[in-house]
Amino acid sequence: xxxxxxxxxxxxxxxxxxxxxxxxxxxxxxxxxxxxxxxxxxxxxxxxxxxxxxxxxxxxxxxxxxxxxxxxxxxxxxxxxxxxxxxxxxxxxxxxxxxxxxxxxxxxxxxxxxxxxxxxxxxxxxxxxxxxxxxxxxxxxxxxxxxxx
Amino acid sequence: xxxxxxxxxxxxxxxxxxxxxxxxxxxxxxxxxxxxxxxxxxxxxxxxxxxxxxxxxxxxxxxxxxxxxxxxxxxxxxxxxxxxxxxxxxxxxxxxxxxxxxxxxxxxxxxxxxxxxxxxxxxxxxxxxxxxxxxxxxxxxxxxxxxxxxxxxxxxxxxxxxxxxxxxxxxxxxxxxxxxxxxxxxxxxxxxxxxxxxxxxxxxxxxxxxxxxxxxxxxxxxxxxxxxxxxxxxxxxxxxxxxxxxxxxxxxxxxxxxxxxxxxxxxxxxxxxxxxxxxxxxxxxxxxxxxxxxxxxxxxxxxxxxxxxxxxxxxxxxxxxxxxxxxxxxxxxxxxxxxxxxxxxxxxxxxxxxxxxxxxxxxxxxxxxxxxxxxxxxxxxxxxxxxxxxxxxxxxxxxxxxxxxxxxxxxxxxxxxxxxxxxxxxxxxxxxxxxxxxxxxxxxxxxxxxxxxxxxxxxxxxxxxxxxxxxxxxxxxxxxxxxxxxxxxxxxxxxxxxxxxxxxxxxxxxxxxxxxxxx
Lengths: 149, 519
Prior knowledge:
In chain A, about 75% of the residues lie in helices and about 0% in strands. Chain A is mostly helical and about 150 residues long. Chain B contains 22 helices and two strands.
């Protein structure tokens, strides 16, 4: 995605969100609605300016990371997916087990192709157990246990 | 007052506080030295740990980490030409050339002494400026708070590194997020999408962890580059004394950089990177040996490091007195204060005076501790920089983010908030909206809304909205500052387009003259 497309897509997304915020506020009581409507109005106008500037070729420059963008985007999407899976697993199988699954998932995505992948994942797993123990047995945090509870 | 200061001093000199200062500074140096890990991330991850501690110990630890991390950024700037934290950008300009010339240890000692000096001067300003400013905040009414929030947002947009407009939109997004939940006046339930968990609004600490940890982790894994080659160095006898004497010959450089760093730190959003760059620019502009900059000038390293460490305390001044953080780490410290039941303002220096002054005194200790710790741990840190690939810490940082978000209120919804905010922040960052302005909007939102609605009520009661919003002297000053902060970037851009300078003219000129340097 080019810088121009990114600017345009983000400006349109912000326009839509601010428009929704403004319209939705119409249903609130007068003093509850004024601030969201004022802010949504300012954001809408700013996003519109951003869109117009981008269209006429004067949009702001975004610094893009170097390297193979295709690989980077794939890695990014996979990581975000792994993070969502990890989050969903927490109430189902508990913080510790979800942590272990999450660390293995993210570890494989992160370290794949690098030297010492298994060692890095094992170190991360041990660290997870240590920090879990610290919070659970020293700070007495009652973590969700899921099906193991 | 005397009793309060004595108790504060006792509190900071108790063994636990001293150990926490040493641990905090050491951990901070390591975090700062590893490119990819940031001071904000470290503080955000540590806040939940400090929740169970006595407030004094929690704040001492967080303050020590903050100071240590800003200083630690100089190690990677000098040894691998990569700033460990954004604050150390200007340190790379001369630090790395010094290391290339075989003067790595000299550069590190310079950075250490300059950081200690800047840090201590900054804390002195913090100690003397904060109480009167906090007292002055008592004369702030709703209109003043409204204009203060408006000024905070326009100034952060003005100093946004990529684009003023994107900074403004980012701040606006933060304000919109702050309206989620039950309205402070008249109590309408807003933008909760029927979710009970959102009725109290977005939980601040999980949101801060989401904003500052998740995008950083995703970026560090996504970019997944190998760490640079660390230039090795050996400690040399009497180097500290030699550098100390050399710096003594440049008192104005040190004083100017400290003052610049502190006052730039006060400006919301400006932070250590701008402090370092402006101070470096001034060092070149006023130096008789301009040509030595960019090729390994000790004065260049000193200017940058003095200013960025002074900016740490500068960023805390508006946060402690007015509730407006000067930099992202200060925003997280703001969250930590709220978590401990302490609200920024005059109360911090009266009812919570013992804790607040102990925190301020601990910052002096933390800055002083950087001298022995930096010199002693330096080589070990350099070894770790060579051996540790920060990507290996990514899964652990995610786990700590989840555990930390959950453990504050033992609420699983806070994990969802943290992850949701983190993924959204990652997408926004890719579109050029940085987390700093959004977080400031999130923090200033409630202040601005309360100020606006209460001012409207006051105006209706008095029969004149104009006199309430525009009729008070502090409001007028803040309005002028707001207008200036909107116009100033436009004027700078206009002058740059017409070749009439710009903010960092000397740095740019040097870059043109020495394209081969690391500038």
